[in-house]
């Protein structure tokens, strides 16, 4: 069995590719009590990938913090509070690319990520999954990406100590993105 060569982001035609929130996800995972992992997602996302005629690529995206879903309403409400995301004061998180570069068969999208009013440069390891003619609504492209962030860098949560050592919530948060984008006419 042989594998097909990896799709190149340069295979995208010039224009604007809008994120289809119904077919995309922004997930996260973080250690809890030092022994398990809690997972969640943000339901409301929007943004676009723009490919210029010269092939230059840019990405801009926005996440509605209030759309957090961990499968537990009580936890979700606490995460929206000032103790964590402070969704009332900081209703969105944003990403605006500053550079896209090749990395083997994949690429790295570097950009300014803003959360809780703090902006940090973040590198997203991106896999381009290819394009498809779509199902009557136009051409679509697929992407998968991931990054590991420090929640402390963005002032999210506290370092409540455990009696047995360690803290209630780990610092490293793994972000996973599965994005489907629709080519605009």
TrEMBL record:
Entry keyword set: Plasmid
Domain of life: Bacteria
Matching SUPFAM superfamilies: YceI-like (SSF101874)
Domain (Lipid/polyisoprenoid-binding YceI-like): residue spans on this chain: 16-182
InterPro entries associated with the record: Lipid/polyisoprenoid-bd_YceI, TTHA0802/YceI-like_sf
PANTHER family assigned: PROTEIN YCEI
Family: Belongs to the UPF0312 family.
Protein name: Polyisoprenoid-binding protein
Species whose genome carries this gene: Mycolicibacterium arabiense
